[in-house]
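Q: What would this chain look like folded?
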Amino acid sequence: MDQSSETSESTSTASFFDRPGVQVESLPIGQGVPLGIESVSNADLGLGGAYGAWGACFDNASLPEVIQGRLGLPLDHGVLNLSELGFAFRHHVPDLTEEQHVELEVEVGARILSEAIRANGWAPAEVDAVLIGITVPAAPDYVERIARRAGVPEHALKVTIHKACDGSVAGLNLALNPDLHMGEGVTGNLAQTLMGKKVLVGGIEGLSRVMWHTQDRQALQLFGNGAGIIGLIPGETMQFLAGESQEVYDEDGVLQVRMAYPHSGRRAAGQSLIEVAQTGLHSLRFAGLMHEPDDKADAVVMAGPMGMVKLFVRSGVSTVRSAYAAYRNRMAQLSMPGKDIAVAFVHHANYKINQLKAKQLEKEGIRIPMPWLLSEFGNVSAASTMIAFLRKLKALKPGDHVLFDGFGAGTYYDVVAVELGRRS
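A: My prediction, written as structure tokens:
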């Protein structure tokens, strides 16, 4: 992937709340929690969405004091060089009760869903499906709650995807890829069901809530709150070209995450790590097995930054390579051998991971612009890829081919190539 554009957009010095176009308000929970949302649309493509963050904003200089307050211990030499990792700000919520955390994230999710619906020019009653990636849900029926509060009809399909940072791209793959295996015991295909329907896809990650339950110093510095939701009509405003999904279990526990959702915890040779459950008349849950911390009280345990690089780069490159080969074959079938991917929207785990991944792909002749776009958020897991897409949406043109690249703890990888633009 071409790195020429990656640094040009990674040096923002203003916080997200100070960005032009962001609407900021204080939600009346606890002593008040700030929420900022930006809506984006591109009429030529027929695509739109909304993204945002909530909680007090801390820059890299002020964050260590916050972390030390939570730990009750000095960080000493454990302070990360966050600017080198591509991050300048983080959003954190105060210590709230469990009920307040749930109410906060339900309200945030409902408001961002509502703004995404509005950005697409839809009415809530027109929404046919909502697919949301969440690493650690605030409530088991979180997607059902936010959809109901946003006015989405009860009969609309609600899909929750627990594949850590890969959740939103996994949702997009489910919504678009007619060849994707749905899981053991599942009949039918979501992409076929959703063709021509109004669909919302994204990630909502209240990770600062999760950070109240970890002692991991890296996690406390890297993760924050963020959400990004896009609206699309499969086969009309976004057309599937190629896709790939892989699982490579994290045997060594390089990135351990406590599963806050139902999963048997069992592994069987030759079987997927994803368990699919019908959670309601119109609801599905895709739950991925995680390598969990030994300490039952801990939420996240991470290896060093280079451990993250080793965990995600090798398999991540393999997944992109496979999807890109399928894309090139598709272009040959369509007699469009000169067409290529205009830009890739990659999960923003940290800048060094994406940089090394791009260099490895470039060695194999795969050169795609991969801009770094989320310096104001920190790692916001499943939300990051959709936020990155929305930040570039206005610059994209009908007929552009773009790549979505998700990867997350567990370890899960989804890559989807699509064509943008309305088809009548």
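Residues 16-420 form a domain with the Peroxisomal Thiolase; Chain A, domain 1 fold (CATH 3.40.47.10).
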